[in-house]
Amino acid sequence: MDMNESSEKGMKSNASSGPGNGIPVEWQSQFSGTFSCTPAAQQQHAMMESFAAVSAGLWASATSQNMALSSDVSAMSSAAQRSAGFLAPMPAFLPQGLSHFPVDSGFIERAARSTCFGGGGGMMGAGAYGAADQSMGDAFGGAAERLMDHHRNECNDKADLEIAGNGHDEVPSSEAAGGDCSSKGSDSKKRRRPNEVMGADQVHCSNLPADSANESVHSKDKGEESSPATTTGGKSKGKGAKDTSESQKEDYIHVRARRGQATNSHSLAERLRREKISERMKLLQDLVPGCSKVTGKAVMLDEIINYVQSLQRQVEFLSMKLATVNPRLDLNIEGLLSKDLLRFPGVHSSSIGFSPEMMHPQLQLSQPGLIQGGAAGMANPDVFRRIIQAQLGAKEGSQMPHALNGYVSQMAYPSLGSQDLSIRPSQDGFQM
Amino acid sequence: MHAPRRFKRDFMERLLLSLQVAGLTSKSMGLRERRDAVRVSSDVAMASARGRGAPWARALVARHAAKRRNEALLRRIMGGGGYERAAAAAAGRKEVRSRKIVTRSHRLCSSRRKRRSLAMAAASGAMVARTMVKGRLRLLRRLVPGADALHGFSLLSETLDYVVCLKTQAAAARLQTCMRCVRGVNEKL
């Protein structure tokens, strides 16, 4: 409850600053024409703020932290523009385990810049090393990445020698360079976190690829259109890239070949694509409730389809309900509700000015049934209970709270569409 | 970018406004019309809150704009400019339809090929799984608006986005109805 209130307060403070920007110009102009201009607009803004704030607070508390995080993540990731720099939102996109790992955009871009696909191993190594110097200290504290098998196989031995020769400082850059070498980059626009990072000292010792224990696919972001050019470019790019790297921002996806897997360019690109898809599936898994145990694309897709269908059905049903709740859709209920909600965190509302409203069909429902429908819809039962009590406190007195308590305690989060938001005037109003 | 909280707030605001606008258009509407108006306004609110960045938003609005009945309401909610854009998008869907025909024919060919190959070799587990996945992707394309021509990764991103927005839409609608119910009960008492 405290979290809810604090979040609501936080939301309100945000909302108060927001609404001027939130409503686009077209809407404002539209509605200034429709309604009486300023006072109504302001009132509506205020009410929408509060309403939205409360609802946002409710939602925030309702959804688990994971889900909020994942939805943020997914939202951000899904909405990330391809051409825009990903690095800014990347820290937020980090999985929890890697939060300690500072993303050094400068390093990444430099590493990416020095990348070249195929024969540019030597130059790439040099360029990457140079680039890595500056970022080395901060970005990769003690962590460094392994060299790729692919790098070794396809690029010349020169690269290896250079890598071995340049020594400790260059290790992360070498890895990045190796990663660059293999990554096609142009097709992969998605941001990815490096999954595993190895110790720096290990890298020197094992220029050789494979500890089988250390298999990891490491990928960074890559998105720039210029990067493909550099990837396919020659060795000259390596040195030039180092100079220009500081100025530009580039994301590169470094894919490390796993031990014993084909290091073909095609297979690597395909693997990258597959991993992107699997990451999306993971995000979807977090989003769809009850899919944590499910593995496999087909079943996952099935669950997703069911969930989408159930959501659509819910929306349709709710819109029908909304249409029946008030015969006229233009009732200024929100204003009144906002007053309640504004007072909800603290004081119970004693008197609320009701605009003279019409009777509506819902009133015939038994009260437990009504509350059932309402409570079933609300994600956070406690908040809802408080609201209800605030509103009904004056009238009902003792009976309502009991009913509400018994009711809300049995309420579960509405699962995927099996339970409905239908207001069933059940005989005992305590079952769903 | 797509900040969920701001999206929710935007959506709530737009929903309320659009509902009021919808209510203003006609005082005496049948239940079905009212429900359609509510649905249209809620969809438009969600799509406009999402912004132009998402193809499903455009497709959703275009789907509503394609019906003549909603024209007046849509004009009111989105303004003339917005409606023109939606109408243009709706007209542009003919190309999508032709693409659908092409993909459907392609699918038929591939299914014929697969049947032939199945006849030759026993259906391996991988192939069965692939068919299942393909069938479900097809369903998904039908469910998510505007995702007809998407494949693979982009389809999943679209779905992700759409699911998030659907969730907020459902939650917002739920809040709305609950509040109004409670309000009605209160007044009655």
Count of separate DSSP helical elements of chain B = 7
Number-wise, the strands of chain A total 2
Low-confidence stretches of chain B: none
What's the Cα radius of gyration of chain A? 29 Å
Question: Within the largest sheet of chain A, what's the order of strands?
Answer: 1-2
Beta-strand percentage range of chain B = under 5%
Structural class of the helices, strands and pairings of chain A?
mainly alpha
Q: How would the global form of chain B be characterised?
A: elongated
Percent of residues in helices of chain B comes to over 70%
Q: Report mean pLDDT of chain A, rounded to a whole number.
A: 50
Number of separate helices of chain A: 20
Largest sheet of chain A: 2 strands, antiparallel
Overall shape of chain A: it is: elongated
Radius of gyration of chain B equals 21 Å
Cα-to-Cα separation, first versus last residue of chain B: 45 Å
The helix content of chain A, as a percent range, equals 55-70%
Count of individual beta strands of chain B: 0
Order of helices and strands of chain A: HHHHHHHHEHHHEHHHHHHHHH
